[in-house]
Amino acid sequence: MTRTTPTATATAYASPASPAADDVTRVAVSxxxxxxxxxxxxxxxxxxxxxxxxxxxxxxxxxxxPGGWLDARESLDAAASRTLAETTGLAPSYxxxxxxxxxxxxxxxxxxxxxxxxxxxxxxSGIEPQENVAWFDTTALPTLAFDHxxxxxxxxxxxxxxxxxxxxxxxxxPDEFTLAELRxxxxxxxxxxxxxxxxxxxxxxxxxxxxTDAFRTGSHRPARLYRxxxxxxxxxxxPLTSRR
Amino acid sequence: MTRTTPTATATAYASPASPAADDVTRVAVSxxxxxxxxxxxxxxxxxxxxxxxxxxxxxxxxxxxPGGWLDARESLDAAASRTLAETTGLAPSYxxxxxxxxxxxxxxxxxxxxxxxxxxxxxxSGIEPQENVAWFDTTALPTLAFDHxxxxxxxxxxxxxxxxxxxxxxxxxPDEFTLAELRxxxxxxxxxxxxxxxxxxxxxxxxxxxxTDAFRTGSHRPARLYRxxxxxxxxxxxPLTSRR
Lengths: 244, 244
Description:
homodimer; alpha+beta; seven-stranded mixed β-sheet; three-stranded antiparallel β-sheet; disordered N terminus
């Protein structure tokens, strides 16, 4: 570390003068919603996310993450929910803050975007048919507006690295599911095969799922149904959770 | 989840009109810097952080986290480093984004604060004597300005829950250290005793520390020195790391 000479004390927050017109930073929110889509005849489900086509400059015609401007009278969480609903009609029960993106050149005007994310079950992820809203497979995305390619890359990395069994089960599966169904979801997200025996052992040791007394029957051997353990906290917000 | 009727497509980002004077949201950055302080004769080190006393309204006279306004021509990371240096003279080599705080009532005017955090070694955490800057023990903090009490609570929670052996060793200890020294740091952060044998086993299994051929000698049995494994990525930024 290097030392610098202090040049000011705690006056930086005081008396915010009205910023000059070319010195305005605006705050936006965007959301990354992940869900799964199964195509008949295709073995593995696809990880999909909704995008909105821009109808004005900048980046007119390009696809972008759902979002919009923060209103000065609403919280960041409320703005994320409102703009997502306005642009796509989607309303997940819980949006989690992901990261704030603030590179100087990410938009023609200066915009800091607070990005939220959520997982949605297939049965929750319907969108009323609209010309400028669509779900895209994350492995076949167009070039997005602004720095939204980078934001999606980051969100996918977080999904692959940081999302535990409980959250996946709660966010992407119905209330009860077999271990094979959970494993298939993981295989879709990680885009690789997982060893069934190892997967079962890890899940059982994780304490995040609870076996039920029910079984899925059908053409295969009956398979036990599990549900996620609601005692396990899904989000990593710690003391912030109580303020929601 | 509930469904809402879409009321707009992707026009929310377009044509930002100049906001009315009472509708301005400003962006600030704040930083939480954790370090350790050892008091002669006291067994356990204290977790400390630097605060800056406010010299103007709002909250004149209260202590606050170092920080200041984002300049429209600098990135969030750069603003965090600059305002920390200006208010305290501290310049950690790496600041990590922690969370964006944006409750409507957190300040008399509307302010969204992007909060950064870092760990500093004791030998890096000197501050030139200044009237309005001081280090505080995190177990004996005054009531802070704005929502900074909540921000510190959240940062401490993240420190206790999410910081692995490698990051602690890299951020708070010299280049080489004994396992007892590392354990003492953990005991300070967690504010409880840890079993030495269990701690040693966990560290050795973690792969985040590398044993050296050197030993600490003195009044006790010689103790092997370790260094942190620089192959282990310290921050959880994934694809964002390459952009720094």
